[in-house]
Design a protein that fits this description.
The structure is a single chain. The chain is α+β, with helices and mostly antiparallel strands. The chain folds into 2 domains: about 200 residues, Barwin-like endoglucanases; about 170 residues, Ribosomal Protein L25, Chain P. It has 11 helices and 17 strands. It has a 6-stranded mixed β-barrel with strand order 3-16-13-15-14-17. Strand 10 and strand 11 form a beta hairpin.
Length: about 375
Amino acid sequence: MKRTFISALTAALLCGCASYKPSFDAQNTPHISEAFGEAKNQSAIYRPVSWSELSGWKKDDHEEALKAFIKSCEAIGAKSLWAKSCAEAKDSGADDRVGARLFFETHFQPYEVIADGQSKKGLITGYYLPTLKGDTRKNGRYIYPIYKRPADLVTLNPKDFGLSSAKIIRGRLTKEGKIAPYYDRATIDSNASLLAGNELFWVDDPIGLFFMHIQGSGLIRLPNGETRLVGYAEQNGRSYYPIGLYLVQRGEIEREALSMQSIRAWLEANPRRTQETLHKNPSYIFFEEGNASAGAFGAQGTPLSPKRSIAVDPSFIPLGAPVFIKALDQRVDLSRLCVAQDTGGAIKGATRADFFWGEGFEAEERAGKMRLESAVWILLPK
């Protein structure tokens, strides 16, 4: 799910996360800069470690992680850093846990990721693929639109104009030929004529639709039983504001009790304040239809693997890289090798990750409540 502002259910709903840019400890990690291109000389350190320092490494099912990595090789296999390891992954013939683990240990070097040059602790939250009931036309209960990218939405890359900023500018092309900020969520919701004709589907649940914007993609169950997939196409350029933070600051929900489930419960219990609250977040997502049988796709353009794909900040973790994550809460058994295949606007920082649970009720329950202090190691080819 290409999620430009998206997700990290609890954290995204609760906090705006500070942005960081990576730096490299040139003495210890001389080849890391190749993985990140121009992202150099900033705030994260990558310390080479032995495999024994990855607590829980040997207990993991590395075969599942290898399958996910091979999917990523469709996107990164032509890049010089990954070409050899991708070729070796496809030819490895590893079809069990031990063989897959030996593949990674033979061809990769693990690096401990230290955020901002000093903190080894990170945060892992969860996301999932939601299902909404909908129809291809507005009727009866289906009155809330899912929009495709509108024709008047333009994106500008400052680098195309010789500017150093890496942030894409999104705006609206006016009749006068000028670029203006694109409509915010409140304006779009309040004036259906602005985007008339851009409707992909209509759904019956405005709260579920809002959370689908956070997830970046979803399944639409039609009245005839057919299921259709929608995924991220573009965003309106407005900064994301977490409604969870708004509700906590107003004393509506205790910070310790904040989750997707508690936010939904509050919204459903306060229908007269629902729209006002949702409009606190001016960011808005536009979708495109995909292949439902293929499942959700990440920002990398490859299919996401439940419980093996994570969203990361690509300024620190290159898409396609294997990443070992471990929960620091001793009550939670989460030590596993994942693959960085997605991004999210709330996923900022070197040790920040969003864990993809898949689809279904259990995935929704686990994702909505997931908020774990963690440690992160990135695996790069030797």
